[in-house]
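[audit] Reproducing an earlier prediction to check determinism. Same input, same settings, fresh worker. If the tokens differ from the archived copy the diff job will pick it up downstream; this log only records the rerun itself.
[audit] input (85 residues):
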Amino acid sequence: MDLLLYVVFGGIVGWIASMVMGRDAQQGILGNIIVGIVGAFLGGFIMNTFGQTGVSGFNLYSFIVALLGSVVLLWLYSMFTSRRA
């Protein structure tokens, strides 16, 4: 059951991050889920670097950390793909 919750949480976070970055029409639900899950790990890494806790369950703080990581992930992705074109 926890895996399903992580997938749903990742999908929601990835979807919101893609809307913030203006990429919602370019990626599907699978892309949103992947961005949300990887973004949660990235957000946790960023917060741990600054001495804070990362994603610690299903709460508002974890949602914000995962959203921060997802936005950073999409920003980095757009930086690398726009330079190649």
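[audit] rerun output stored. Observation attached for the diff report: The chain has one domain: 2-84.
[audit] end
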